[in-house]
Amino acid sequence: MATSPALLFPSTSSSSSPSSARVEAVVLFNICDSYVRRPDQADRVIGTLLGSLLPDGTVHVRNSYVVPHSESADQVAIDIEYHHNMYASHQKVNPKEVIVGWFSTGFGVSGGSTLIHDFYSREVQNPIHLTVDTGFTRGEASIKAYISSNLSLGDRHLAAQFQEIPLDLRMIEAEKAGFEILKYTMVEKLPNDLEGMESSMEKLYILIDEIYKYVDDVVEGRVAPDNRIGRFISESVASMPKLSPAAFDKLFNDKIQDNLALVYLSSITRTQISIAEKLNTAAQVL
Fold this sequence. Notes:
Blueprint: E1 20-24, H1 25-36, E2 46-53, E3 58-67, E4 69-71, E5 76-78, H2 80-93, E6 98-105, H3 113-123, E7 128-132, E8 143-153, E9 156-165, E10 167-170, H4 173-183, H5 193-219, H6 227-239, H7 245-285
Parallel strand pairs: 1-3, 1-10, 6-7
Antiparallel strand pairs: 2-3, 2-6, 4-5, 7-8, 8-9
């Protein structure tokens, strides 16, 4: 991977800065996906934000892509060639989407953010910085947008100050449901297919037991009958296919075998991808 020298040039600024940011859901999903697929040694991922500047000063972010980088306490190296190639490819598909800023995973602004922001300030005037807390530092995925301004003493530049700006997340109902799942840490790990099937079957057994108890209570006169619940139970039973126990066992076992085959194939695929990434990294080093 061809990387640039450390970006240590001064920050730039302008009097007209974005007043707010509007981010499409696909951008957040792309960022989360890139964080999951990051290299093992990477603590965070960064990338370019694409979109447009609206007449009212709002930056509308509609797309993004990851940019390989490495960073230490006081230096940052960005794969500038990769960044420019990706941007050129996006321009061929949608020339109206231009660079509007950059994103990073993590909580708030980190030490190397100023250096990376300096680079994007050369790519576009007044870029925004979008942060997505994929580490759930405060129990949820905090998402914030910033602009940078220079702090100066006379003619002497002292530092760059990041100021938070209003952020509007644009989502339809289906996207909101997916985002709510990603927003909070609900489980330590995602279950595989077999674990998910086992959990579903356990919940199904509990529901069936509750239905049996309700029907028995109605028949014995302990609970007043509810016609609405009775119709719902009748429709649910009628919707089930009429299968013999032997046919049901065969169908269920076939499904388990299919899931085992998928788990095996996905394991092989992950292994091949991991080997390919290590070989690619070794080839670039050599």
